[in-house]
Amino acid sequence: MRAIILAGGKGRRLEPYTISFPKPLVPVGDMPILEIVIRQLKASGFTHVTLAVGHLAELLMAYFGDGSKWGITIDYSREEKPLGTVGPLKLIDDLPERFLVMNGDVLTTLKYDQLFQQHQRSNADLTIACYRANTKIDLGVIEFDGRLEVTGYREKPVLPYDVSMGVYVFNRSVLETFEADDYMDLPTIVNNLVSGQGTVKVYLSDHEWLDIGRPDDYGRAIQRFEELRHEFLPEEQPVPQEQSAEARGLVK
Predict the structure, then answer these.
(1) Domain count, the chain
(2) Comparing C-alpha atoms, which of 47, 49, 58, 69 is closest to residue 8?
(3) Number of H helices, E strands in the chain
(4) Helix crossing, 33-43 with 57-64: angle to 10°?
């Protein structure tokens, strides 16, 4: 399976961490967030990852190389000007019929192989992984009808909504709906498909998902990764304490 990781953004919301190096290299625990993603993709059966790079591309290329360190093939597609979230895909000329696309700063326990398989079964042109989020409104919410008569009152309600996790599965045919070198973002391509050019479906997930767009979010992501490390990286098996002691030469 093939995955394209969008790693060309400047990560301005996470400054000052991203002033001198790209956001996908921001560390979470003892490794960059993008290394966590690479390890997860490898564990899910992906064999080829293309990093769509731009800002500070050389640092990403120097760190990840050809992917042999992780037993996966990594290559690069470089955009010379901003092309949006979907536009850079048009620069890659060897895409398979179906491929996964994701942001390079996603921290989630989502099972990428299950998402991919669901897309294959659904016959959709595009599948969006979605997460159910909740926002507490710290105000009294008034409900009323067209005659301005109050029909309800909710004090500090919690409102649920479904958000994109920044992980998608595309059919290659979606890229035929716009021209090479065009700026194209995800909302535009989704709205174009929904308006009649194709089918878009969602993959609902209750897995852990964290947005690290702001410094406060970043701090929480570090905490959750340490708490749930073996859910984010299930291939890492905890070493029994006795074995660990023997390895350190503390037990004869």
Answers:
(1) 1
(2) 58
(3) 7, 13
(4) 50
Classify 51 as helix, strand or coil: strand
Q: What is the pLDDT of residues 88-117, one digit of tens each?
A: 999 998 999 999 999 998 999 999 999 999
Token digits for 12? 């301005």
Q: Which amino acid is at 170?
A: F
Cβ-Cβ contacts under 8 Å for 252 (sequence gap 6 or more): none
In a domain, 108, yes or no: yes
**CATH number of the domain that residue 29 is part of:** 3.90.550.10
Domain containing 110 equals 2-129+164-236
pTM: 0.85
* Domain annotation covers residue 242: no
**What is the four-CA torsion angle of 88, 90, 91, 92, rounded to 10 degrees?**
110
